[in-house]
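Q: I have 396 residues here and want to know how they pack in 3D. Can you give me a structure?
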Amino acid sequence: MSNDTTTDTKPAPKPDNKPGNNRKRNTVLAGITLLLLAAGGAYAVYYQTVLSKIQETDNAYVGGNLVNLTSQVTGNVTEIRADETQMVQAGAPLVQLDAADADVALAQADARLGAAVRQQRQRYADVGQYDATVALRRLELQRAEDDLARRLPLAADHTISGEEVDHARQAVASARAAVAVAQQQQQAAQAAVAGIDVPHHPAVLAARADYQAAWLAARRNTIVAPVSGYVAKRAVQVGARATPGMALLSIVPLDQLWVDANFKESQLRNLRVGQPATVEADMYGDKVAFHGTVTGLSAGTGSAFSLLPAQNASGNWIKVVQRLPVRIALDAAELRAHPLRIGLSTTVKVDISHTDGPVLGTAMPRQPVYRTAALSQPLQQAATAADTIIGRNLRQ
């Protein structure tokens, strides 16, 4: 009996080592390698020509002027004519105060000015009275001297007694003293009014200035907007007692905005004033690009100006990369087309390819940076009203 067992085994497939497949694989790998090298080279060129010439930060926020509206006089608020988010024009009345106290003060100033004019009229009249008094005293002195001259020969002949001559001499001395007193009074009266007329007397001018101040205070019961912009942070309420310097509300002029970009200290080496910048606001995304210019770098980092500066001399010290605010001025036409708001987040890219500009800001300009004519008062009207009061009291 046979125990032979037959097992069928298939031979393993031989690896495909055809030369054509190897060449194809090598070609693909070489192509991939060349693509990677080309991409790396292109990125190196792009970085050297573009990215290395740009400093970018997303730690940037829109800034602007926050104009606080305050009262210059004291009074109770009777009207509020604008509320938050509303647009106001420069010179528009926003808050009205009760004018009763100001009207009373203006009437009192009117009365004081009239009284000052009449008092000076009296002083000018007193000068003429003292002139007449001096003339009268001189006549009395002349009469006393004539009496003494007539009595002296009679006293030599013993026609009259010596006592009568002594009385005549005393009368002459008394008349001379009266003349001296009258002359002193005349000089005092002339010193108070010499060289000026009633309208230009210092006392009248002082009362006139007080009247103009009361006139201005009466007009300032209407508080106007100093600039055009949008109302924000209204703190005043009807019936509140407004005092000088009290903040009533704020106005934000949205045509006077900029961006404060906080760059790392390691990015400041090539930043210069005058370099162009591109700003993208999160509000509009990358669809809207604002173009600006670097106008200046802050004189200190944010931590240096904070309320509680860091105490780096302590034992537990950890180095923190500091940031420096860089001011970016924006194009006014682009702001009108796409308005921004204070505090919005932005991304700033500064072209640092030109490094010939100054590192620090320029000197203070000769012309005012901001100006308003809305707060100016027509002082000529106050002067005309004061002159009318003076003329009325001069004629009466």
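Q: Anything worth noting?
A: The first strand starts at residue 54 and ends at 64. The two ends are 167 Å apart (CA to CA).
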